[in-house]
Amino acid sequence: MDPGARTWRGQEHGPRGTGRFEHVHTLAVDVEGRNLLLGAHTGLFRSEDGGKSWQKVTLSAAHAHLDVMAIAPDLKDPSIIYVVRRDGGRRDLPKP
To answer: Which residues form the domain of 32?
Structure first.
């Protein structure tokens, strides 16, 4: 996406060593407008450069293999994002 959000370009590859994103389900912008958050079959990812590069968000072992279906930042507390899993469970995760 260009800075003016007028055009979109496809992203052929996910983070280094992960190949392509698999089953992208959701995309969100954090409350501060600095990071893009992407939810996929393979987990939660963050971009700090408008989507040019992506890093997989490292989560605790209990959340290591989330199939992320939805992401919503907490509007009152920018340190929290909400993540909905494929199985319908919701996890309140610290902001990556």
So the answer is: 23-47+65-90
- 69 lies in some domain: yes
Q: Which two tokens stand for residue 53?
A: 């590069």
pTM across the whole model = 0.69
Give long-range contacts, CB 8 A cutoff, 24+ apart: 1-10: 1/50, 1/51, 3/50
Structure confidence by residue, pLDDT tens digits, 14-34: 555 555 666 788 889 988 888
3 within domain boundaries: no
Question: Which residues does 4 contact at the CB level (< 8 Å), separation at least 6?
Answer: none
What are the tens digits of pLDDT across the range 40-82?
888 889 899 888 888 888 776 666 677 888 999 888 887 888 8
User: Is residue 2 one of the residues assigned to a domain?
Assistant: no
